UniProtKB/TrEMBL annotation, chain A:
InterPro entries: BPD_transp_1_N, MetI-like, MetI-like_sf
Topology of this chain in the membrane: Multi-pass membrane protein
A Pfam cross-reference name: BPD_transp_1
Transmembrane stretches, start-end: 12-30, 100-118, 130-154, 174-198, 243-268, 288-314
SUPFAM superfamilies: MetI-like (SSF161098)
Domain ABC transmembrane type-1: 94-311
Keywords of this entry: Cell membrane, Membrane, Transmembrane, Transmembrane helix, Transport
GO biological process, one term: transmembrane transport
Subcellular location: Cell membrane
Species, as recorded: Breoghania corrubedonensis
Family note: Belongs to the binding-protein-dependent transport system permease family.
Protein name: Peptide/nickel transport system permease protein
PROSITE patterns attached to this UniProt entry: ABC_TM1
Cellular component terms (Gene Ontology): plasma membrane
UniProtKB/TrEMBL annotation, chain B:
Gene Ontology, cellular component aspect: ATP-binding cassette (ABC) transporter complex; outer membrane-bounded periplasmic space
Entry keyword set: Signal, Transport
Gene3D superfamilies, alphabetized: Dipeptide-binding Protein, Domain 1, Dipeptide-binding Protein, Domain 3, Periplasmic binding protein-like II
Record's subcellular location: Periplasm
Designated name of the protein: Peptide/nickel transport system substrate-binding protein
Chief location category: periplasm
Record family assignment: Belongs to the bacterial solute-binding protein 5 family.
GO biological process: peptide transport
Molecular function GO labels: peptide transmembrane transporter activity
Keyword Transport attributed: yes
Domain (Solute-binding protein family): residue spans on this chain: 67-444
Signal peptide, first to last residue: 1-24
Lineage top rank: taxon: Bacteria
Length: 326, 529
């Protein structure tokens, strides 16, 4: 078990290095940060001096090595735009993104699973067809469009919900939360739905197809034959067996929810890491871009590691195989 | 557990307290860009400096019509053409309670010219600044400069003691390794104080009750939020969450006007949008004409000019929110601008000129264009491309985000362009800046006129520019400016397109003043009940 985890960790380090390398190769094509850092009257000589002092004239391998050496000490440099340490900036934006991702995932599960069960059990009802239609919309409409549509209906026309931002935020020291104030709760509804809609659809369709499969299985027939009430058959026997793949998918999707919050955050001006990253791309703020990409890679690596370990714990066959090999 | 609950309760209480002073007149606004830093010398850019102008003050200030008024300097006199004396205002206090005096001016004069400052051109390195007494400062120049104080609205005076106390004497720059106090805190003399600043999220200002001057507006508290997305920004105004958002896309103006409770405020901006052509290389980088540079021929340049229907661009692309321009400077900034006329749109004449120059079937040329810098910049370039196609010029349009565009066409990219679209606002509000930045000769590294990307060179214009800088007589000066601009116009060195317009979305609950340089001054914000 320990050897397995160590092996996985070593692989994780390799993945992170690869991500950093790819990111650095890409930064060369984003544009020149210096022109975004100075005003129009700054002379070419002053610009060249600034470029030199930022180390942008060094060859890419040198810049890359410097970045890795600093990143190993958790020093990601200072943002070109904000002139503040990048770790501080990302640290202050992290709670917003994590809260949004968590609420979206919760929404996707709490709405997706019941809808999946319902449509699986009542394949021909009108409500099922409605759910399936909604899920088709959720899968095919782009996120920014759903966001703008929601803003138009609920902010501009009905004026029920705020169109941007996080509302009133409570500072708990290391963490800021919007979940403790009314305005904060109101502000998270639309971004969470926008971000979670795709995942909700995915979970619903997954549960539905699993449910259709399971419901035909012999043990369900036996359960029915024993005269158990439908409720127990459906929820205790059928649903429980559909949840294994759902848990796997949800875990993996959590990573992509965090990573794909970029667009939702931009549409709703949600002050999270995604918004910070997108603004950094526009202004070629390389330290922020690099740190963000590393963080996202890290999140994925950690989630994968946890999933791997869970498999190891849950699935006896994996253990047996390894035992035979060694 | 108990500790956590206590922290929670404290947090909630704090949130409630923060929300409490609701009766105070609060003004909320959003801009498309981010207020990156509170350091007043870090970035020479209108939004940053304009916003900080509510907190900090210079020796002068400009009102809503851009007229110069005394601010921290009560008055000034020109003792000799090269010596200016400024009499400072007495009894002014910084937000932290410190007194303002001559030491602060001398200190700020050194700091603004120090390494890392992006505002070094606001005060020449060879100007000697000396304290005469506590409230008098002399500026000794190496040559006459009639517009010495034109830019000084944005040269803010810092408190020497405060800056030294917090170890912020050197200007923040990204290459620093230590964080700078002045980037996150502000201590000015202006009518508003910074209460909190979270870069890229929210900045809150509060009225400075001890302000020395009178303020027209009545806002007690001002909240700024950047909203990057156009659609979200407009929605925030329409839903009543924001009192003012700017800019709004030109296509949304009717919607904002039609909505009950909001209006669009439009006006001319000082920025001139124009086309430039490579007139320096012997062969264009992006063209099928080999061995010669067609743009060296004035007939070709004029043919390009007359092929473009600028009135139609203003009407269709800019939806009326622009004014066709005959000159490279806003008519607000030059009294004799009215004497210049645009060459008329005339595709026939254009074709004839091309044929005369030896290109009866036209030629191909590459064009560079930004996509996120000016109002509808990419659409303007597409329109230009279409008009030029009608006279046989095949334009290969390369439209890119500004980060890539500027890296290509400016000195750092080796002026890698043949034909480009650019906009310019003279930061000194004066014609000399236009001549000096866009119309003088330059070498390959950009020494000379750094933004003369086309690299054309006319000794006569250079001479005039040098004389204009030191001429104190306004009539003579205007005459020389006229001559220089006329020379450039006759030779069609640039193709001026239009003065871009400003578009703000404003709630009917507030009154504001729109400055032509797109600066929002809280002094004019009036919140109605």
């Amino acid at each position: 078990m320990l050897a397995f985890i160590i092996r996985r960790l070593l692989q994780a380090v390799l993945v992170m290095l690869a991500v950093a390398l790819i990111a650095f190769t890409l930064f060369r094509f984003v544009g020149d940060p210096v022109n975004q850092m100075v005003g129009q009257d700054t002379t070419p000589a002053q610009r060249a001096e600034l470029r030199e002092s930022l180390g942008l004239n060094d060859p890419v391998p040198v810049q890359f090595a410097r970045f890795i050496a600093n990143a190993a000490r958790f020093d990601f440099g200072r943002s070109y735009q904000f002139k503040q340490p990048v770790s501080d900036l990302i640290g202050s934006r992290l709670p917003a993104t994590f809260e949004l991702s968590f609420v979206s995932a919760l929404f996707a599960l709490l709405v997706g699973i019941p809808m999946g069960v319902y449509t699986g059990l009542n394949r021909t009802s009108i409500l099922s067809k409605l759910f399936l239609t909604i899920s088709l919309i959720g899968i095919s409409l782009p996120t920014f469009f759903i966001g703008i549509l929601l803003i138009f209906v609920f902010s501009v026309t009905l004026q029920w919900l705020p169109s941007f931002g996080r509302g009133e935020v409570v500072d708990l020291g290391v963490w800021t939360t919007g979940l403790l104030t009314v305005s904060g709760l109101k502000a998270i509804i639309m971004p969470a739905i926008t971000l979670g809609l795709f995942q909700m659809t995915l979970i619903m369709r997954l549960v539905r197809s699993e449910m259709l499969e399971v419901i035909r299985a012999d043990y369900i027939k036996f359960a029915r034959a024993r005269g158990l009430p439908d409720r127990i058959v459906h929820f205790r026997h059928a649903l429980k067996n559909t949840l294994v793949p759902v848990i796997t998918i949800t875990g993996l999707q959590l990573g992509s929810i965090i990573a794909f919050a970029i667009i939702t955050e931009t549409v709703f001006q949600w002050p999270g890491m995604g918004l910070l990253f997108l603004q950094a791309v526009q202004n070629v703020d390389i330290p922020i871009m690099a740190a963000y990409l590393m963080l996202i890679a890290f999140v994925f690596v950690v989630i994968n590691l946890i999933v791997d370990i869970l498999y190891f714990v849950v699935d006896p066959r994996l253990r047996v195989e390894r035992a035979v090999q060694s | 557990m108990r500790i956590r609950n206590a922290a929670l309760a404290a947090g909630i209480a704090a949130a409630l307290l923060a929300a409490a002073p609701a009766s105070a007149k609060t003004f909320k606004y959003a801009f498309q860009g981010v207020l990156n830093t509170l350091e007043p010398y870090a970035l020479n850019e209108t939004f940053t400096l304009g916003t900080l102008g509510n907190v900090y003050e210079g020796l002068i200030w400009r009102d809503k019509d851009l007229k110069i008024h005394p601010a921290l300097a009560e008055s000034w006199e020109v003792l000799s053409p090269t010596k200016w004396r400024f009499h400072l205002r007495k009894g002014v206090k910084f937000h932290n309670g410190n007194d303002f005096n001559a030491d602060d001016v001398v200190f700020s004069a050194n700091r603004v010219r120090s390494k890392g400052s992006d505002l070094t051109n606001y005060l020449n390195a060879d100007v000697k600044v000396t304290k005469v007494d506590d409230y008098t400062v002399d500026f000794e120049l190496s040559g006459p400069n009639p517009i010495l104080n034109y830019q000084w609205e944005f040269w803010y005076i810092l408190d020497k003691e405060w800056t030294e106390e917090h170890d912020a004497v050197s200007v923040t720059s990204a290459s620093d390794t230590s964080p700078n106090y002045a980037a996150l805190h502000a201590n000015g003399t202006g009518p508003y104080k910074v209460v909190s600043h979270e870069a890229g999220v929210k900045t809150v200002f509060e009225k400075n009750e001890n302000y020395w001057g009178k303020v027209e507006g009545n806002a007690d508290r001002v909240e700024f939020t950047p909203i990057t997305q156009d659609a979200t920004r407009v929605a925030a105004l329409l839903s009543g969450e924001m009192d003012l958002v700017y800019p709004i896309p030109v296509q949304d103006i009717p919607r904002v006007d039609g909505n009950q409770g909001t209006r669009a405020m439009t006006g001319p901006e000082l920025r001139t949008i124009f086309l430039g052509m490579d007139q320096r290389r012997d062969e264009l980088l992006y063209s099928n004409v080999k061995g010669k540079n067609p743009f060296k021929d004035v007939r070709v340049r004029k043919a390009f000019y007359q092929a473009i229907d600028e009135n139609a661009i203003v009407k269709k692309v800019m939806r009326g929110l622009a004014t066709p321009s005959a000159l490279m400077i806003s008519p607000f900034l030059y009294d004799r601008a009215g004497e210049f006329k645009r060459y008329p749109y005339d595709p026939k004449a254009s074709k004839a000129l091309l044929a005369e120059a030896g290109y009866p079937d036209g030629f191909e040329v590459g064009m560079d264009c930004p996509t996120d810098r000016y109002v509808n910049d990419e659409a303007i370039c597409q329109a230009v491309t279409a008009y030029l196609a009608r006279v046989g010029i095949k334009v290969d349009l390369n439209a890119q985000p500004k980060a890539k565009y500027f890296a290509k066409i400016l000195a750092s990219g080796g002026y890698d362009t043949s034909f480009y679209l650019l906009g310019w606002t003279p930061s000194s509000f004066d014609a000399h800046n236009v001549l000096f930045s866009l119309m003088n000769c330059r070498d390959d590294s950009g020494a000379g006129s750094p933004f003369n990307n086309g690299g054309w060179c006319d000794e006569k214009v250079d001479d005039l520019t040098a004389k204009i800088l030191v001429e104190n007589d306004k009539t003579k000066r205007d005459e020389m400016i006229y001559e220089a601009f006329k020379k450039a116009n006759d030779d069609v060195r640039y193709i001026p397109l239009h003065q871009q317009g400003l578009a703000w979305g404003v709630s009917d609950k507030v009154d504001v003043a729109q400055r032509a340089d797109n600066v929002l001054s809280f002094r004019y914000v009036d919140v109605k009940e």
